[in-house]
Every structure is written in structure tokens, then in C-alpha cells.
Design brief:
Distance between the termini: 49 Å
Number of strands: 11
Largest sheet: 6 strands, mixed
Structural class: alpha+beta
Length: 419
């Protein structure tokens, strides 16, 4: 890899990874704000802004934006998460200048036309409706809400319909002007890209950005508890989890190894015990999510109403037993899976681009691949046991969606982790 890094006078950070063996460039702007930076009364505004950025600027209509990028065979997209928002493109190397121009245009000169805003409200309401018809998506919003009640970290990324219907143009424009500042943005590119050329172009293209934004982060307060929603579904969807570790915690990599061994593949404990041996589920997996100042560790499973009573105790047992550590083969396998995921992603310009941006936003420094691999390799059995016991010492969070009547009481679930 040939990674270079520059900070412009206005604070915009630019990082590139040159890959001479490809003919494409992936590039994008990552903004260090997301759903957790919204006030409660405008929940969903970060995601709405992401949509509106593509709906016309002072010199491009929404159609022109789409036509220009597709005329060169490229594609343009974006996403919003709880802590970040990203706008990115992939093009042939000769069209990098065009992609950069479009990205800078939509991030600085969007008009937020009232007619487009009204139409996009409807689009997002359709998106929320589609998500609500996807139970294995809804269950994670329920889980997040119960883990972090009455705070920004617990609110849905898409927003709530009653709020989306009323957010005005001023709120969208104000969120952009107040939060999209050069100092909390990263321009990343990977592929056949020249760093010095991109820096020179970006300095001109992003000259209009404010230097410092006003984004504030409400500190996350993990609470835990349960949230059950009765629905007439074929499956019961459950998530059981705990407070995890943030992404700067020394146990971050140990939590990832633990999650991989517990439910990260077909050889994992959960898959083997719950699906292969007992046939209770089609899908079961674990996760370790890190945020700026908090984290979540948990397990998802989808099962039938007749099987859920048996599933919950088995799932709790497998989670609890992993606190006793892993055998050497499990530990080696989990570390290999994580390392392979990192190394295989290096074959993609898009993955490399996002890797660079996320590391600058998360750690404010660039971690090279050998260092990441070394951190994974350094996870031993004692580290796994330590983080498992640390996680399970917190109050559980339990969310269930579907025909929930046969699920045991929450206090019984909590009691399975006592002692």
C-alpha cells in the first residue's frame, strides 16, 4: 500500500491509498456526525439531509447529478449511521475530478428545494415502512432503544414518521451548516489516484466549508432492560446483549475475537449448538459493536414460536459458558477469521477507502494493516475470558418481536447470568 495523508489549512483531512494495479478510484467524504448528534425533536434529520444532498444544488438538478455520474459509468451513494455520515463514489480513474466536483457541490451548495423536500419525506416514510416490514431490522432498533432509553444513542437512524413529516427546510439546512465543518470531515480515496493532484483539487473544491462545526455529543448511558413487541409473525426475533466496549478500549479486539468464536460462523458455538445440534433456528449470530464512548455485545436469533421457549435458555448457556474461555483451536480459528476479513477487504478500492476514513474518524490516526493484525494476534485466552466476564457483569438488554408469549420472564433471563 502507498498511503499518504494531508491536512488542509481549513482542517479537512485528506488520505489516499494508491493502487496501481486497478483502473478505478473510490473516493468519498466521511462526516463525524450522525444520529446521536440530533436533538430529539428532529430525530432523523441526519438521514434526511443525506437524502436531500442528492436533490439539487445551485448548478445541478437532481437529474443532472444522476446523469453526470452515470454518464461515465460511475455510481454515487451515501449512508447515515449513529456516529457518521458518508457520501462516496466509484469511478474510472480519469473521472476522479468529476466525482470530487459532484461530492463538493452536494455538500456545500445543496438548495433543499421545498418541493424536493416534500417528495423526499414521502420516500423516507416508504423506507421506514419497508424497514418496519423487515423484522430482523426492527428488532435491532428495539434493542438499541432499550439499551439506551431516552437518549440520542437509542433513537432510530431513519427517524420516526411523525417527526419526518414535520421537519422543515430550515432544520435540514441548519443541521448541515452547524455540523458539516472541515475539521470533522475526511476525504478519502483509494485506487489509481494521485495524492498531490487530489489535494490541490480538494483545496479549491472545499474552500467554502466552515472551519469548525458545532456538533456536540451527548454521552451515552447504557441502561439495559427488556422490550417485547407482539406481532403476528412466522418467526420470533430476539436479541440478547450487554454493555460492550468502545472502540478505543484495550479490550476492543478481544471482544471481536470473543464474538467471532461465539457466533461468527458455521463453526461457532452458537451455530453448532443451536442450529446444527438442535435445529432451533435458521439464523443465529453474535456481534460486538463499538462506539465513541460505549459499546454493545450481543446475540441475534430468529426462531419459531414453538421453539423459542427452548432457545432462550440454550442461548444464555452458550453465552455464559464462553466466559470460561476458548480452547486453543477455537481461539486460533477466531483470530484467523478476523485477520482474513481484513486482508481480503484490501482487494477492494471501496473497502480500502472506507478503512482509511473510519480509522481517521475513530482513532484520529492511521492504523496500518500489520498493526491491526498484530493486535488481533495479541488476543489470548485470558483476554477473552476477561472481556467476557466484564461484559456479562452488566445488566442484560433483551428485545423480542413476534409471538412473544412463550418467552420466559426477563428476571429469569437475568438470573441465568447471576453468580
Amino acid at each position: 500500500m502507498s498511503v499518504r495523508f494531508t491536512t488542509l489549512p481549513n482542517g479537512l483531512r485528506i488520505v489516499t491509498d494508491r493502487m496501481d494495479a486497478v483502473e478505478t478510484v473510490s473516493l468519498g467524504v466521511w462526516v463525524d456526525v450522525g444520529t446521536r448528534h440530533e436533538a430529539a425533536e428532529i430525530n432523523g434529520v441526519a438521514h434526511l439531509l443525506e437524502h436531500m444532498a442528492f436533490k439539487g444544488t445551485e448548478r445541478r438538478s437532481a437529474l443532472a447529478i444522476a446523469e453526470e455520474i452515470e454518464a461515465v459509468g460511475g455510481h454515487l451513494n451515501a449512508y447515515t449511521s449513529r456516529e457518521h455520515t458518508a457520501y462516496y463514489a466509484k469511478v474510472l480513474k480519469d473521472d476522479t475530478t468529476l466525482a470530487l466536483d459532484i461530492l463538493s457541490d452536494i455538500l456545500q451548495h445543496s438548495t433543499f428545494d421545498p418541493g424536493e423536500l416534500d417528495r423526499e419525506r414521502t420516500v423516507i416514510l416508504q423506507e421506514i415502512g419497508q424497514a418496519n416490514d423487515t423484522p430482523d431490522d426492527v428488532i435491532f432498533d428495539l434493542f438499541q432503544e432499550r439499551a439506551y432509553p431516552d437518549q440520542a444513542m437509542g433513537r432510530p437512524v431513519l427517524g420516526r414518521p411523525e417527526i419526518i413529516q414535520t421537519i422543515g427546510r430550515g432544520a435540514v439546512a441548519g443541521y448541515l451548516s452547524g455540523n458539516y465543518a472541515a475539521s470533522n470531515m475526511v476525504l478519502a480515496a483509494a485506487g489509481k489516484v494521485d495524492h498531490d493532484t487530489l489535494v490541490a483539487q480538494a483545496e479549491r473544491a472545499f474552500a467554502g466549508l466552515p472551519h469548525i462545526g458545532g456538533a456536540t455529543t451527548e454521552r451515552a448511558r447504557y441502561v439495559g432492560g427488556e422490550l417485547r413487541e407482539q406481532r403476528d409473525l412466522e418467526q420470533v426475533h430476539v436479541v440478547l446483549g450487554f454493555a460492550g466496549v468502545d472502540y478505543t478500549d484495550p479490550d476492543h479486539y478481544a471482544a471481536s475475537v470473543l464474538s467471532t468464536a461465539l457466533g461468527g460462523g458455521m463453526s461457532s458455538r452458537l451455530f453448532q449448538e443451536i442450529r446444527e445440534k438442535r435445529g432451533l433456528v435458521y439464523s443465529v449470530y453474535s456481534f460486538a459493536h463499538g462506539y465513541r464512548d460505549t459499546g454493545l455485545f450481543g446475540v441475534y436469533a430468529g426462531t419459531g414460536p414453538d421453539e423459542v421457549a427452548e432457545l432462550i435458555p440454550v442461548m444464555c448457556d452458550e453465552i455464559r459458558k464462553v466466559g470460561d474461555g476458548l480452547d486453543p483451536a477455537e481461539l486460533k480459528r477466531a483470530r484467523a477469521q478476523l485477520k482474513a476479513g481484513i486482508l481480503m477487504s484490501l482487494e477492494s478500492t471501496s473497502s480500502r477507502c472506507e478503512h482509511l476514513a473510519q480509522h481517521l474518524l475513530v482513532y484520529n490516526e492511521l492504523l496500518d494493516v500489520p498493526e491491526l493484525v498484530a493486535r488481533i494476534e495479541a488476543v489470548d485466552n485470558e483476554a477473552v475470558k476477561r472481556v467476557a466476564r466484564r461484559v456479562m457483569a452488566t445488566r442484560p438488554t433483551f428485545a423480542a418481536l413476534g409471538q412473544v408469549g412463550r418467552i420466559e420472564p426477563f428476571d429469569r433471563i437475568v438470573g441465568r447470568f447471576a453468580g
